[in-house]
Amino acid sequence: MDDEEAFLSIEHVTKKFGAFTALDAVSLELRAGELVCLLGPSGCGKSTLLRCIAGLHRQDEGRIFLANREIGQLPAQQRDYGMLFQSYALFPNLTVEQNVAYGLSQRRRLAPVVHKRVREMLDLVGLGHLAQRYPSQLSGGQQQRVALARALAPSPSLLLLDEPMSALDARIREQLRIDLRNLQRKLGITTLMVTHDQEEAMMMADRIAVMDQGKIQQFARPQDLYRQPANTFVADFIGDSNCLFYERLDTYVAQVGELQVHTAMPLLQPNGRLYVRPEQVQLAPVGESRRPALQKNWFVAHFIDGIFLGRYYKLFFQLERADQTQIEVLLPAAQAEPYMQGLGKKYWLHLPSEALAVYKEVA
Ligand SMILES: Nc1ncnc2c1ncn2[C@@H]1O[C@H](COP(=O)(O)OP(=O)(O)OP(=O)(O)O)[C@@H](O)[C@H]1O
């Protein structure tokens, strides 16, 4: 751990299902109070890691510590966490209040101290007024709030969330993300959340662990993942990127088709891929000025398509003399609209050398 001591520490955890390795010596450390997202494509091992921490799977190798206590071999109920799943998993025959009380006391008649705690929890998630309802009388978002209140009621040290919002519709999901994040900050509870939704992870997490094939590819702040991907997997997975296949001509000059593309980063491999984010590509009208042709990395491209995204447009261009390479450009709507009139029209397109990056290929 860089500066602070780890609150949850996962050390070289390996989990196999038969001959298949779902987790391959995964190590991860969470600081007290932070919200970390496990993000990755379907089947990369996110839920398996969460379940190993929860004690719902037993790892084949490796150790897990929570607040300096080794929990990796303890039964689930002794590990001190609250958990929330995609499905709300509420008891349909118990009221909201009784559901929340379930983890505190399994009797239907609530002792005053339990009752007080349940009330506090329901107020915390904004459902104090619905205490006597049954789950079937609630919306999906409300049911998930009840499940959250139930998970938090015993004051666990750790909150584990497994795709908690994926069953909800977009608008409710958006609100619940904000509420969950605010609540997590207010309580200062260390939280690990599984999601395959990049936007959700970017919006909520202090740090994101990007996983692929049972390994953590990069663990960093959202801004750093976007700006400095550790390898080509992360560069492809996080955000949109343009990708140009090149052959090296010189340390700082790449050949893309017939074009010579100058880079600020040294090209260490004889060939590979250059990445550039759509918002970093610049455009200029052909004919208005001859200047671009004389400068580095200005190329002629044809406008081929555009997609309206509300505040922005994604515009697609095809580079001339570059093996059909397509370049995506992101522009604010007002700037992009004139381009939409001219299908097939030629433009100058600038790939700034400092915006071009090469990344380590994943083994
Ligand atoms: N009980 C099991 N028996 C056999 N294989 C399993 C078992 N549980 C998970 N796997 C396999 O392990 C891999 C990782 O599964 P896991 O559920 O952790 O993926 P995930 O990243 O959470 O994906 P998703 O987003 O689709 O839930 C998958 O290939 C899955 O098929």
Question: Your description of this structure?
Answer:
The protein has 363 residues and is an alpha+beta fold. 25% of the residues lie in helices and 34% in strands. It has helices at 46-54, 96-101, 112-124, 140-152, 170-187, 198-204, 222-227, 232-237, 291-294, 333-340; strands at residues 6-17, 20-31, 35-39, 61-66, 69-70, 81-84, 158-162, 190-195, 207-212, 215-220, 242-250, 253-256, 259-262, 271-276, 282-285, 298-308, 312-319, 326-332, 346-350. The strands form four sheets. Strands 6-7-8-3-9-10 form a six-stranded mixed beta sheet, sandwiched between helices. A five-stranded antiparallel beta sheet has the order 15-19-16-17-18. A hairpin with a 3-residue loop joins strand 16 and strand 17. Helix 3 packs across helix 4 (140-152). The chain starts with 5 loop residues before the first strand and ends in a 13-residue tail after the last strand. Bound molecules: adenosine-5'-triphosphate. The site of adenosine-5'-triphosphate (ATP) has 11 residues, from helix 1. The site of adenosine-5'-triphosphate has 11 residues, from helix 1.
Structure, briefly:
Pfam families: ABC_tran. The protein has 363 residues and is α+β, with helices and mostly antiparallel strands.
